Amino acid sequence: MTKPKHILLVIGGGIAAYKTSELIRLIKKSGMTVRCVLTESGAQFVTPMTLAALSENEVHTTLWSLKDEAEMGHIQLSREADLLVICPATANLLAKMAGGVADDLATTLLLATDTPVMAVPAMNVRMWLHAATQRNIKQLRADGIFVMHPDEGDMACGEFGPGRLPDPEAIMAEISVQLEASFTTTDGATKSEPGNRANILDGQPAFAPDRHRPLRGKHVLITAGPTHEPIDPVRYIANRSSGRQGFALAAAAAEAGAQVTLVAGPVHLSTPAGVIRVDVETALEMEKAVHDALPADIAIMVAAVADWRADSQSGQKIKKKGAAPEPLKLTENPDILAGLARHEQRPGLLIGFAAETQKIVQHAQAKLAKKGCDWIVANDVSGDVMGGANNSVQIITATGSENWEQLPKPEVARRLVAKIIEEIA
Predict the structure, then answer these.
(1) 367 annotated to a ligand binding site
(2) Could you report the per-residue pLDDT of 253-293, keeping only the tens digit for each?
(3) Rounded to 5 degrees, what angle do the CA atoms 84, 137, 280 make?
(4) Which residue blocks in 202-243 are alpha helix, DSSP H?
(5) Which is catalytic among the residues 36, 87, 157, 373?
(6) Known catalytic residue: 157?
(7) What is 357-390 written as a DSSP string?
(8) What is the pTM of this model?
(9) Chain-centre distance of CA 272, in angstroms?
(10) Annotation-wise, does 335 bind a ligand?
(11) 351 is in an annotated binding site
């Protein structure tokens, strides 16, 4: 009989701590066991008695328990677990983890563990966006800790923006993904490792599960799909992009161990396993979502963003009046790729896509110079590429071009991610 997975849940001091009660219920419902470590500040929001009743296990609160520490409890707690989950991970906890501080039970066991760790941040929007917090997040990801991206919305403090704790169901789904991830060691044993997601592209893994995940600790930002630019409540300006190439790239990057944020226009595709998805409709919304997701180590701008939008949107459906309507006045949309190239948090490797129908290489070379990115992936969309299953691309860089024959989009994604790994190695 397979031994049930065991979660060690570290609860930080934030108002979102109340949601851990539901998370514990979901963990138990899934057939796993859970033990809680409650920080001193976390105890201001939830009680040990509540957590003990829900988890059906003793709750640990102090490093100075004579019984526990006589048995080196802070080490044993982490070694018994298959996954350590910090929820909510406050700005203070994240800062201590990034700096290697060990001044209480929670931070000591986190420093002493070799068990996979998953952090679920929750804090005020200004704290989340602060440069210090973003530096800490980058360091933690580089250290191999999986950090979920917080949700965006209204907060208890009355402000709006990124920083909300994700719903318990979303956290539980990510816990399952992290637990499914494993690699085979040289002695044949299987060991869990965060971020090694078992997502499969067309039945074939992008990277063999027994290999080191080369993008571990890297944040990859990807845009995909079209944008819809409203004219009136029933009409919009759009294009034929399906989003399939961008979603395949998100899956391949996640398989390689990256933390992936996928900003998706209006498409009907399932989110790849372990990928953080942000849905948008317009170019302006996509630009904001891209900037909100920074910093990123690598950005791949695959989305086919509409060049133009209606200068003004009618609040009512525009009716036929027997004569030709007034010409539609258009205004230019932001150039998200070029703007990202000039951004103070410009990703270290910035890749753009170019959909062309003629003079593919020449137009892509001109776009590379104009946009200020590092690579352009040019594809000929004169056939059925937009919405189709295959793609034929040219990789344009400052040193030359590389032509790839027509391949299934998941294979194009795998090859491009492999090329990125080679570039940053």
Answers:
(1) yes
(2) 988 889 999 999 999 888 887 788 999 999 999 999 999 99
(3) 100
(4) none
(5) 157
(6) yes
(7) SSSHHHHHHHHHHHHT-SEEEEEE-SSSTTTSSE
(8) 0.55
(9) 10
(10) yes
(11) no
